[in-house]
Amino acid sequence: VQLVESGGGLVQPGGSLRLSCTGSGFFFGLYKMSWYRQVPGQERDLVAFITSDSGLKYYADTVRGRFTISRDNVKNTVDLQMNSLKPEDTAVYFCNAVRLDNDFWGQGTQVTVSS
After folding, report:
1. What is the pLDDT of residue 87?
2. Which pairs count as long-range contacts for 65-69, CB under 8 Å and 24+ apart, including other chains?
3. Most buried residue among 19, 92, 110, 115 by CB atoms closer than 10 A?
């Protein structure tokens, strides 16, 4: 099982980034997919999730209206489009796949918002 995130980097406030996560080794299309983020010394927080059929999307209050989660069950990818980025969005972003007792994590990708 692998979840591999990509797309992180350094961006100025107000800018945009698109994170992508590719899954392999499991039936991607059956899993709820989520993005979390973590700042050193703090808990890992849920940013957004999308159900297996894309029928439901959830966003944390801190990102609603700025971030958009989407998935492609043919390509086994889940993306997070991040617009109007703020310095407080700086964190390591993790991809997560959950179904029943299975809970898989990626290694994370760093997002830094700074001028």
Report:
1. 98
2. 69/33, 69/35
3. 19
DSSP 96-114: EEEETTEEEE---EEEEE-
* Angle (CA) 22 24 30, round 5°: 90
Instruction: Name residue, tokens 């069950």.
Output: 73
Q: Give the tens place of pLDDT for each residue, 101-113.
A: 999 999 999 999 9
Q: What is the DSSP letter of 84?
A: S
Q: Which amino acid is at 110?
A: Q
Phi, psi of 113 (to 5 degrees): -110, 110
C-alpha 93/C-alpha 83 separation (Å) is 15
CA distance 21 to 73: 12
- Residue 37's pLDDT band (boundaries 50, 70, 90)? very high
